[in-house]
C-alpha cells in the first residue's frame, strides 16, 4: 500500500467520525435549529455529505470496480450507496428523523456528481500525464 493510499484511508476514517457525530446528533434531535433556516439545507447536505462519503470510499478502495457484464461499477460508491440506504431505512424507527425518498434521491445525486467529477478530473490528470485512466477490478 502506498502512502497516497494510506492518506485516503485516513481521510475516510476521519470523515466517518464526522458523519458519525452528525448522525448521533440527528438521532438525538440535537442538530442546531439555525441550520433549518437555510432553504433546502437538508437536500444539499445529503448530496454533499453522502457524495463525499462515496468519493472517499472510492479513493480509499483505490478506485476498485466490480465488473458485472460490460459494466465496471465503482465499489466504493456501491458500498456507500448500501450504507446510505440502510441508514435511510433506520430513520423509520427514530422519533427525530424521517425517512424520505427525496432524501435518498439527493444522496444518489450527490454520489453521481462526485463520481462524475472524479472521472472528469482524473481524466484530465491522465491526459496531461499522457496515459489512460486505470481502474482495478476485484479478483
Describe the model.
The protein is mostly helical and 139 residues long. It has helices at residues 3-27, 41-60, 75-90, 101-129; strands at 64-68, 71-74, 136-137. It has one domain. Strands 2-1-3 form a 3-stranded mixed beta sheet. Helix 2 crosses helix 3 (75-90). The two termini are 17 Å apart.
Structural features:
single chain; about 65% helix
Distance between the termini: 17 Å
Largest sheet: 3 strands, mixed
Tally of alpha and pi helices? 4
Rounded average pLDDT? 89
- SSE ordering: HHEEHHE
**Radius of gyration over C-alpha positions, nearest whole angstrom:** 17 Å
- The total count of strands amounts to 3
* Percent of residues in helices: 55-70%
Topology:
Layout: H1 3-27, H2 41-60, E1 64-68, E2 71-74, H3 75-90, H4 101-129, E3 136-137
Parallel strand pairs: 1-3
Antiparallel strand pairs: 1-2
Helix pairs in contact: 1-2, 2-3, 2-4, 3-4
What's this, in brief?
The chain has helices at 3-27, 41-60, 75-90, 101-129; strands spanning 64-68, 71-74, 136-137. It is mostly helical and 139 residues long.
